[in-house]
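Record passed on here:
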Amino acid sequence: MKKKVNTKACFGMMGISINSWKLKFTFTPTQKNNELLTELDEYIAIIGKAQESDGYLQTQIQLRDGVDRYENRKYHEMYNTGHLLISACIHYNVTGQRNFLNIAIKHADLLYTIFMPDTKHFGRFGFNQTQIMGLVELYRTLGDKKYLQLAEKFIDNRGKYEVKHHTTTEGYPIGDMVQERTPLRESNEAVGHAVLALYYYAGAADVYAETGEKALLDALDRLWENVTTKKMYVTGAVGQAHYGASVNRDMIEEGFIDAYMMPNMTAYNETCANLCNAMFSYRMLNLYGEAKYADIVELVLYNSALSGISVTGKEYFYANPLRMLNNTRDYNAHENVTETPNREPYLSCFCCPPNLVRTIATVSEWAYSLSENGFTANLYGANTLNSHLKDGSPIKVSQETAYPWQGKVKLNIEECKAGAFSISLRIPKWAKNSKLTLNEEELSKSLEPGSFVKIERKWKKEM
């Protein structure tokens, strides 16, 4: 007989906090499309040909006359590096092939040589912080601690040097715009460019997960509270203004301004910033196992993330104001304008479309987490989980739901171990008067919105 238990939740949902969720499920690729793999190999070969002998790989510099490598941070070399490292690690973990990973290793080794030493020229360089996440991912993939050390170095350099223009900063705002006035461990307020800040925080959360440094976590706690309680819209969107000033009167763009200053029509709310808000909260969820972080992830995914893409998947918003009136704004006020009344098939700054689709592709890894002896459902949506618990025992669960249009969720446990284990289910913060049934019998547990409910038992075979 098939082992099957029906667990139903009518929203809200369920919950008890888990002490530590540092583990996550590993998902096996389901398509295994050899044509896609062959196509990827062709692209990777092209990337490899572009890489220089010492590992440098930044085509926006290599193809630009009169600009040298790591000459000016405005060219966002660190941003491109981070995405390169992350994608190479994912490619290796999914395919087992090292062709892309070897390119990433060669590039990261060059970064270590250049940026690990203390130099005035490079000390302020790493302001667009995806490289921190990429280096931690490379460390997790290879186990080489130098990549983790370099990731931490980029954190340590913020707020370490005098804030004034020099050769590497000309042409781009300085100070709070790029989080360089205050060291992260002393920070209390989210400032500056929202994407740069939230990638920074997400990277720092990755570093904390590996080092356990309390000062980092304390700062991340303060910054998460500041973002989500004082500078976030009801849609989970962040970055209140296209242009503005920080509390230190530094010029900022596409970013955070004063607390509770939340304009609707002039809100910027870049799609990337909203996605980064979810990425940061997901990492905090992994560190704490508290439902409030998953609530933010869900809020973003269904609102300020999806607003950035059309139903066809071919048109995009860069900015996502809450109110838009076509007859009151000049949408052609300057070159490369990013606030448009309609989603566009192409954006001159093309960061948001790939960031959005990669996040959608990643959501399956966010849906469930491992607990000490069981699993936790963080997000809801029709799916099948086929994986293993921490002790190596198989777990297969199907989820049936019309969420978010309807609040009923049904979990069918189709394969599991014979011994007792726990299932923890999230009750969204917005959900009131929820109920939980097990095999059609209502459980008497108190279901508190914004928490997890934990059920631990031996799951019986259906007769």
